[in-house]
Amino acid sequence: MSNFTLTDVEKIISVMTDVILKNEVPFCELDSAAGDGDFGMSLAKGFRELKKEWANLERGDIGAFIKSCGGVIAEHCGGASGPIWGGGFKAAGRYAAEKTSLSLSELAETLGAAADGIMKRGGAKPGDKTLLDALVPAVDALKASAAAGDDVKTFLKKGADAAAAGGEATKNMVASRGRASYVGERSISYPDAGAAALGIIFTEIANAF
Amino acid sequence: MKKLINTPETLVPEMCEGIVKANPCLEFLPKYKVVKRKELNPDKVTLISGGGSGHEPAHAGFVGYGMLDAAVCGDVFASPSSVQVYNAIKSVKSKKGTLLIVKNYSGDCMNFDTAKEDAKDDGLDVDSVYVNDDVAVKDSLYTIGRRGVAGTVFVHKIAGAAAEEGKSLAEVKAVAEKTIVNVKSIGFALTSCTVPAKGTPTFSIGDNEIEYGVGIHGEPGIARQPVQTADVLAEKMTAALLAELKISGGAEIAVMVNGFGATPLQELYLFYNSVTKYLPEAVKVYKVLVGNYMTSIDMAGASLTFLKLDGELKKYLDAETKAPAFK
Lengths: 209, 327
Hints:
By secondary structure, chain A is mainly alpha-helical. In chain A, 67% of the residues lie in helices and 3% in strands. Chain B is of the alpha/beta class.
């Protein structure tokens, strides 16, 4: 396989949904150290609804599918996760509009569009100790891997490793966005919950292919 | 976890149903979890606030004549979605426009801002203010700014009175912003809160410790410290707020001692007594509120809020309100 079809994209989002639902409590615990402990719950709420709506999502093309996922997530995730994750999905959907398959480099670009959408919505940038610190390195690794002509397995593995390493690296950062920013230096030594979660999600997606 | 609930999932709607059944002038829109006045005045600016649940009586308890027109209820400690806020705006549409009173948290700001833009696209006149009264956290270029906490209740009261008087949207916004600039708060926790859906305390804290500068979601503040007497805390907190408000000579202030949910009134009144010991003589207390206004579910602890007053703010603070929780 060298292209991702709608079925593959459905599989990616379906694995992601299962990981988020399975890790509801652990993801809350990641958020308790410097945040308010509701991250896993808020995220699971939106993806639980996504699972419920799964059969009714638009499937005209890949972009339409991702965008309709974004609509459900934006409406049903609680707190900041709705606009951030929903906004990311919607931006990715706009990039993939009318596409029925994605090459490896197009998949990397789709994820890059999600990162840009999240930056625009939340006003954060890499280094602020947010999920972007896992997402942006993953996008870079995926782009490089696609350019190097890697196979799908290697491609996904490199993206997942970069996301996990990015999540881990947030332990050494001082939060400057989101609720963890209120505690400034006391957030050091705890990873950002969103970045750490993305590392886990991407790893499980890579394992599923 | 021991809580008087049915299931964590149905807590918020069941609570809202209870609020409106206890206060027949209010109604609940279950689809978007909005508590609103049953009868709206289309000739005044309408006011909407809201945020995560768990801060009761905020914000639904402050809906009523003289204060808010609607409160949008998110899940416990999670902002409502932009779709909920957008529908709240539509539900209290007025000829004079709508003001959103938002506590400065990332999730609330993003969802209320998105809803505001969507409503403006529909041709509605909507504006917003952001309350950031918590002095516990630094206000710098590198953070998203200070949190909005108990001082928000004063913004509801004063903007609500101005709206009731028939002021324009720009005028109501201006008096809300004047209140925001002049209101400062700081709090401490003796115990953690427990989010029902999680079932365990948000943070662990020793029997002999307090979290000084805690936020209203149990998020950390300035420092973990040994337990102190009410007098010691009152002296430190009073000094911090006076310094933030740059009150060195005479001033008139309103004071709020706000319980976080699990601290008995006897301790809140005792704490207010301690505060009065450390207020300079030239600082006159014009109005005092002692009670639970902006809670953190079942956290023990309290916050102290000072609002620096002038003639206009005093007039609106004194104006009549029928909101069930403002006493």
